[in-house]
Amino acid sequence: MEHELMLTGIGGQSVQLAAQILARACVLDDRQVTYLGTYGGTMRGGNTDATLIVSDRPVSAPPMVSELAGALAMHHQFFEPLREKLRDDAVVVINESLFEGEAAPGGQRVFAIPATQVATELGSALAASMVLVAAYACITELARLDSLVAGMREAIPSYRRQHLESNEKALRMGFENAPAGAASVWSAGGAR
């Protein structure tokens, strides 16, 4: 089984970090992963996307996909190009706190998570991407919570270690409050 997904948002929303954490978590759960992060020419305010291919067998293609089985959207501003790639049965998780407009054009399964609101209530609005990526992992059973936490601890650079606790709280909150397995991508019980 193979699952292609893309994360999108505005630079500064930690989209690239969230993608790295999910990729690391999937590897910890014995999946094969390819990952490619792209971003516009500005550090903050420009577009940022990350594509992941997660598989239970070796991945032979680079992470450039024409169709997506899943999407995470931190913001609506740069979502349009991604929307056009969504399969009819794709799983779409949006940051309900910031996303405006329609998330999916067809039969996609859309889950609205108030990621920025939850992260703000936890004391760190910057952790919204942690809430969203954990919710996606729970909904799709793509990765386990303890793997997400371990992946986050690996991905956070030493000069940002002060954010470990708030990021872990956000991961736990996102995972524990999402509808577990509502759109599982793995057969035979998912990745749990």
What can you tell me about this protein's structure?
The chain is of the alpha/beta class. It contains 6 helices and 6 strands; from the N terminus they run E-H-E-E-E-H-E-E-H-H-H-H. Strands 2-3-1-4-5-6 form a 6-stranded mixed β-sheet. Helix 2 links the parallel strand 4 and strand 5. The two termini are 15 Å apart.
Characteristic terms for this protein:
alpha/beta; 6 helices; 192 residues; Pyruvate-ferredoxin Oxidoreductase, domain 3; disordered C terminus; 32% helix
Write the layout of secondary structure elements.
Elements: E1 2-10, H1 15-28, E2 32-39, E3 47-55, E4 68-73, H2 80-83, E5 86-95, E6 109-113, H3 115-121, H4 128-140, H5 145-155, H6 164-176
Parallel strand pairs: 1-4, 4-5, 5-6
Antiparallel strand pairs: 1-3, 2-3
Provide the CATH architecture. Answer: 3-Layer(aba) Sandwich
Contiguous runs where pLDDT drops below 50 for at least 5 residues: 188-192
**Which range best describes the helical content: under 10%, 10-25%, 25-40%, 40-55%, 55-70% or over 70%?**
25-40%
For the record, the count of structural domains works out to 1
Specify the structural class. alpha/beta
Task: Output the CATH class name.
Answer: Alpha Beta
CATH topology: Pyruvate-ferredoxin Oxidoreductase, domain 3
